[in-house]
Specification:
The structure holds two protein chains of two kinds. Helices cover 44% and strands 25% of the residues of chain A. Chain A is of the alpha/beta class. Chain A has a domain of 34 residues. In chain A, helix 11 links the parallel strand 12 and strand 13. In chain A, helix 5 crosses helix 12 and helix 10 packs parallel to helix 11. Chain A is globular, with a radius of gyration of 24 Å. The two termini of chain A are 17 Å apart. Chain B is an alpha+beta fold. Chain B folds into two domains: 89 residues; 72 residues, no CATH class. Chain B is rod-shaped. Classes of the chains: A alpha/beta, B alpha+beta.
């Protein structure tokens, strides 16, 4: 009771920390009873909290005892699973060394305990109050879309990509990727490609044989292929067009893409590769319920290039919708939601 | 803790600075209050003491009054005793004088000592003996003296002598009380 009274008398200071590729973004929002009083943000060229950054934060948190420091988890050993049942969780991932939470009794997100300790240790000087998963940002940011449609939702950060497939608020698949690590993996796969290509050829030749067998054995069914033209019929194409999110497209029409430069292109290509391979893993992995993805919603915090969108559209045949997201503001929203404000 | 992996730290407005100020002020207030209470108590106890002293003084005054009354009474008793003693002495002397006054030839059978007089009963061999030997000294003491005789069986005379002091000597009369 007394605490509530004091709490209402003081300002609330929300400190939100986003660790980027080579810098740390600190976003501070000051709240009174009436609403947001002020917000400030500063970027520091460090991954570890240095004196300058701590001074900046201390400067604001000393204004009120009711300050909350939140950080976005960027651990590589994190993800989300399509169940909340403890028995089912182990089927997807071994969570013995992980901290996990259930989201609205529908799906869970997890991260490695060691990474949490590491984060807490890193910020021990100012302490941490909340550590949020990027999947929460996806769920919050796209809550209007997640409710109704099946799509792939992606949060693009400087060097991370969090992606999740949702169907009517139910998570089907999720992954958190480091685009650079992904790149290395791909290089590794490319290096092994020569060996694998032989196997693929073999498989293809076998498949060829099978097809021939079918053609010989089932002549009658050949007639069915006459209907194959139907697939190209205009109606079908229209149906496909209907699956497009018109409203989102209208919103997106205002989006101005950056002029692609060489570096951005590289990064975006890596992102594309990461998304492509992740989607492939989703289709391939039998543990997850496979659904055909037509739409992809991207929460873009780094201003991706138009090439990135083009890639996804042309290579993966997806309807791509990009929304710009201020991750730090979203993190702040999560903090407020957590505190029931 | 619904979404966050970790629990937020407990937030309290009592930062070390605030705690220090609160402690300082509370100690000051406690000291002020205790001083006030101490003074209140002292005031109360002084008031009580004063009441007690007033009561004591009244009691003592009453005692003094009582004792003064007693002293007065005792003084009165003493004076009465003194007077009685003096009267007794006087009486004793008077009786001694009286018996010294009576000659050997006259025998007294009875003597009534009155407030302002003396009645003597007795036998005398003759009137003359009486008149010379007893009447003369009696007259020197009493202003009025009446004597009546009547014969006794053996030829002697019984007499009754009534003597009065006429002039009022109050001091002497009071002493006879």
């Amino acid at each position: 009771m007394l605490d509530k009274l004091f709490e209402s008398l003081y300002l609330k200071v929300f400190v939100n920390i986003i660790i980027k590729e080579s810098s740390t973004l600190v976003y501070i929002e000051i709240h009174s009873k009436k609403g947001v009083l002020d917000n400030r943000q500063a970027e520091f060229d460090t991954l570890e909290p240095n004196e300058k950054m701590l001074d900046f934060i201390q400067n604001y948190i000393k204004e009120s005892p009711f300050y909350y420091i939140s950080v976005l988890d960027n651990s590589l050993l994190q993800g989300a699973l399509p169940t909340c049942s403890k028995n089912r969780l182990a089927y997807y991932y071994d969570l013995s060394n992980c901290e996990y939470k259930c989201y609205k009794e529908k799906w869970s997100y997890y991260t490695a305990k060691a990474e949490l300790y590491e984060l807490e240790k890193r910020y021990s000087e100012i302490g941490l109050d909340f550590i949020f998963s990027p999947f929460l940002i996806i769920a919050n940011f796209f809550q209007d879309k997640i409710k109704s449609s099946l799509a792939l939702y992606v949060l693009v950060e400087e060097n991370y990509i969090s992606l999740a497939v949702f169907e009517e608020s139910n998570l089907l698949y999720a992954e958190h990727l480091d685009i650079h690590a992904q790149n290395e993996d791909d290089e590794f796969f490319l290096a092994n490609d020569e060996n694998e290509s032989v196997d693929l050829d073999l498989q293809e030749s076998q498949a060829g044989i099978d097809l021939e067998d079918i053609e010989i054995d089932e002549d009658d069914e050949l007639e069915d292929f006459a209907d194959i033209e139907d697939l190209d019929s205009i109606e079908e194409i229209e149906e496909f067009e209907e699956s497009k999110d018109i409203e989102e497209e209208l919103l997106e029409s205002d989006t101005v893409f950056d002029e692609p430069d060489e570096e951005n292109f590289n990064e975006d290509y890596q992102r594309f590769i990461a998304i492509q391979s992740s989607v492939a893993r989703y289709y391939k992995d039998e543990r997850y319920e496979s659904r055909f993805i037509e739409n992809i919603y991207i929460a873009d915090s780094v201003s991706v290039s138009s090439d990135f969108k083009k890639y996804l559209e042309e290579e993966m045949f997806l309807n791509v919708y990009i929304r710009h997201v201020e991750i730090e503001a979203e993190l702040c929203e999560l903090t407020k939601e957590e505190l029931g404000l | 803790m619904r979404y966050s992996y970790i629990k937020p730290r407990k937030k309290t407005p009592f930062t070390p600075d605030v705690v220090l100020i609160v402690i300082f002020f509370s100690i000051t207030i406690i000291m002020l209050v205790s001083t006030y209470l101490f003074l209140l108590y002292k005031d109360y106890s002084f008031e009580n003491e004063r009441e007690n002293l007033i009561q004591n003084r009244l009691a003592l005054e009453q005692n003094i009054e009582k004792m003064e009354r007693q002293i007065h009474y005792i003084q009165k008793q003493q004076s009465v005793a003194q007077r009685v003693f003096t009267q007794n002495m006087v009486l004793k002397d008077s009786i001694t004088n009286l018996f010294d006054l009576v000659p050997q030839r006259i025998t007294l059978s009875r003597a009534d000592l009155l407030k302002k007089g003396l009645i003597l009963y007795g036998v005398t061999p003759s009137k003359d003996v009486y008149n010379f030997m007893l009447q003369a000294p009696l007259r020197s003491i009493f202003q009025k003296s009446y004597t009546s005789f009547y014969p006794a069986g053996n030829g002697w005379l019984n007499f009754v002598s009534t003597n009065y002091i006429v002039n009022d000597d109050s001091g002497e009369l009071d002493s006879e009380d």
